[in-house]
Structure prediction request, 460 residues.
Amino acid sequence: MRITRLTLTALALLFAITALTPALSALEKQPTATYHARRAALGEKLQGGIAILFAAEESELDFASYRQDPDFYYLTGWNEPGAALMILGPAKAADSPMGTTEAQPYREILFLPNRNLRVERYTGAKMDAATPNVTTLSGVDEVMALSDLPALLNKLIAANPALAARLATEPDSKLADTLLDWTAITFSQHHPPHTRDLSKLVAELRLIKDPGEIALLKKASYASILGQREMFKTVHPDVTELAVAGAMTKVWMDNGCERPAYFPIVGSGPNSTTLHYSENSRTMRDGELVVVDAACEYSMYASDITRTVPVNGHFTDRQREIYNIVYNAQKAAIESFVSGKSKLLDWSHTDPDALDTVAYNYINTHGKGPNGEPLGKYWMHGIGHMMGIDVHDVYTQITYPAVLKPGMVFTIEPGVYIPEENIGVRLECDFLVGEDGKLIDLDADLPHTAEEIEAAMKAK
Ligand code: GLY
Ligand code: MN
Ligand code: MN
Prediction:
């Protein structure tokens, strides 16, 4: 290429622009109007109160990539550390918390920390309240410096003391606790204001996925399916568990995923019976099974897939028998599904509407354990969990057993783990309840039956 003076000028200009412009996140975002609508929906739940939540912080010397707080990301799509979000819920004149006739309009403010150019040399450029067009870039109505947050909160409460009883914050947020302590001191009170659990309010929204979220979840599934297919090719006697995890990780990253959705579980032989085994240090041996519970995260949305495969490509009779019991237990749960009636995660195994009960009853009435006993006791975890921005999505914030409805995304993952025989089998697929109430298997393109798995391994 001939380097002309014009080319050099253009390159210099490009370099100057790149150096001055903060890097925008590489994550695939939803339209800013979507995040705005979520904040407005949260505002409606506040009954005229205030919500305050904080972004995840960034450590200077970290061994993992920055991951935004899930609720913060859901509400903003903002992927920078150290920010705060305040939402003031609208109130009509009549039910204004002030007890006056004045109405309170909806208000939303993103608070950004001041840029620290020294830290940015390590972790990359950020935006702050002074960044040009930051309101447009963030999509939030107002953007202020983080240092203005305590003063604004004080001002709002001073103008309307009833607001102090209508605060919602995230539990276990040290920053929220500090802010509330400070606010109490400001008003000469001994105790900080009592707050509502903001994470529960946001969970009610996060539980039903919108079409944009479903598209991202499908991309996570797609890359995870490719990773599992790579696993079929990589698993072989004398290969290490870690080599399998590594081969899958490469495929995820080649396909736009930013990280695993959880630490990959590649458990061979005896390790197949440890539910969340993650040391991945063993060398797989001929004749064993390997449980591969490994999937990735695409633009903050998770996938969670498990396939159990024979290390040498062929199930023994006993391995096949247990595999088929797990497969048929999952099938029974899927076939029993009725939107608006079926429930997820019921440890009691007594509720006939719970998918757990259906799968458990199948497992407990088919096959036998090593001493001739029913197999139910060899399945010791729940049938599944919600999935979304977190692999175990809004797990502690919602009430299980959860009634399953359109727009919900969750796993169905029965298993049987028999340490006495070094046989562990888990089959985990991710499902969306479609608008018509039918289940959509997000990893339908991946082998499910023992025979499909053997055929896929033979093709390698
Ligand atoms: N991968 C963790 C789980 O299946 O819940
Ligand atoms: Mn799972
Ligand atoms: Mn899993």
The CA atoms of residues 25 and 79 lie 7 Å apart. Confidence is low (pLDDT under 50) at residues 1-23. Residues 211-234 form the longest helix (24 residues). The pocket of manganese (II) ion (ligand 3) is lined by residues 293, 304, 306, 428 (CB under 6 Å).
